[in-house]
């Protein structure tokens, strides 16, 4: 019988993030030698990387850092919430975020291709993690925001998991409190654009067509169609445009009005929710 204990199994699981059965098999093969067991897990894991390519990585976390007028937001994904809340995965995400900040990466492709201090690319770092943890690990999205003032906000949707929603907001003027309030609003109300001018023209036209077809189906009078269509398109803007949304803390005011009263102007934002 291999010379290892339950404590060895627990320690190796925490070190590698691998499943209990895989850990026990590796310790058996290594005759209880933890260092050798880690190598066995890594070798077997790397062989399985290709097999995991088609698997879904819909769990994970978002991580953010902001300061000195720059903010960075990353989404790092895995397959299960068990791995997502593990120390090894969280440490990996912190390492990825730190490198994204240092390398000024603005998208996932450039971050994955960039080189760490030890000569590995971020992609190779993730492949190694994929091997030892035994799940598909990937960086899905990266955002970098610059402005006079940039704040970040992270929100946990479950107390047992790391942050699942992350937000960056860039402002000119105002103070830290209004910036944070707007970031929390973005987390809760998930706007898709800052201003209505950013909504693609084809999207607006499609909303008009749907609104008109719906009004006709409802039997609305012809004379009222134009007004009804404009009202429903306006409703689309209120739902999707940050500056036109009713502010979370003061619903009778729009976000634009709250910012105006605070002497601030929003210049950009980014919002990630894990798996969406």
TrEMBL record:
<keyword id="KW-0963">Cytoplasm</keyword>
<dbReference type="InterPro" id="IPR018101">
    <property type="entry name" value="Transl_elong_Ts_CS"/>
</dbReference>
<dbReference type="InterPro" id="IPR036402">
    <property type="entry name" value="EF-Ts_dimer_sf"/>
</dbReference>
<comment type="function">
    <text>Associates with the EF-Tu.GDP complex and induces the exchange of GDP to GTP. It remains bound to the aminoacyl-tRNA.EF-Tu.GTP complex up to the GTP hydrolysis stage on the ribosome.</text>
</comment>
<dbReference type="Pfam" id="PF00889">
    <property type="entry name" value="EF_TS"/>
</dbReference>
<feature type="region of interest" description="Involved in Mg(2+) ion dislocation from EF-Tu">
    <location>
        <begin position="80"/>
        <end position="83"/>
    </location>
</feature>
<comment type="similarity">
    <text>Belongs to the EF-Ts family.</text>
</comment>
<protein>
    <recommendedName>
        <fullName>Elongation factor Ts</fullName>
    </recommendedName>
</protein>
<dbReference type="InterPro" id="IPR014039">
    <property type="entry name" value="Transl_elong_EFTs/EF1B_dimer"/>
</dbReference>
<dbReference type="InterPro" id="IPR001816">
    <property type="entry name" value="Transl_elong_EFTs/EF1B"/>
</dbReference>
<dbReference type="InterPro" id="IPR009060">
    <property type="entry name" value="UBA-like_sf"/>
</dbReference>
<keyword id="KW-0251">Elongation factor</keyword>
<dbReference type="GO" id="GO:0003746">
    <property type="term" value="F:translation elongation factor activity"/>
</dbReference>
<feature type="domain" description="Translation elongation factor EFTs/EF1B dimerisation">
    <location>
        <begin position="71"/>
        <end position="276"/>
    </location>
</feature>
<dbReference type="GO" id="GO:0005737">
    <property type="term" value="C:cytoplasm"/>
</dbReference>
<keyword id="KW-0648">Protein biosynthesis</keyword>
């Amino acid at each position: 019988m291999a010379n290892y204990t339950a404590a060895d199994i627990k320690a190796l699981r925490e070190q590698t993030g691998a499943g209990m059965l895989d850990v026990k098999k590796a310790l058996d093969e290594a005759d209880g030698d933890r260092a050798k067991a880690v190598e066995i897990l890594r070798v077997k894991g790397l062989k399985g990387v290709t097999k995991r390519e088609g698997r879904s990585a819909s769990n994970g976390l978002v991580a953010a850092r902001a300061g000195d007028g720059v903010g960075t937001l990353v989404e790092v994904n895995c397959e299960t919430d068990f791995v997502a809340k593990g120390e090894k995965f969280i440490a990996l995400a912190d390492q990825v975020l730190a490198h994204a900040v240092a390398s000024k990466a603005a998208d996932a492709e450039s971050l994955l291709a960039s080189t760490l201090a030890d000569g590995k690319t971020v992609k190779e770092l993730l492949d190694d993690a994929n091997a030892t943890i035994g799940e598909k690990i990937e960086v899905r999205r990266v955002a970098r925001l610059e402005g006079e003032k940039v704040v970040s906000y992270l929100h946990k949707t479950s107390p047992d998991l790391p942050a699942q929603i992350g937000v960056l907001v860039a402002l000119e003027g105002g103070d830290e409190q209004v910036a944070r309030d707007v970031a929390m609003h973005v987390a809760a109300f998930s706007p898709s654009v800052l201003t209505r001018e950013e909504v693609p023209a084809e999207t607006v036209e499609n909303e008009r067509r749907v609104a008109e077809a719906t009004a006709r189906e409802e039997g609305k009078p012809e004379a009222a169609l134009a007004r009804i269509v404009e009202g429903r398109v306006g409703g689309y803007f209120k739902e999707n445009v940050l500056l036109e949304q009713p502010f979370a803390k003061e619903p009778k005011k729009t976000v634009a009005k709250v910012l105006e009263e605070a002497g601030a102007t929003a210049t950009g934002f980014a919002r990630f929710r894990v798996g969406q």
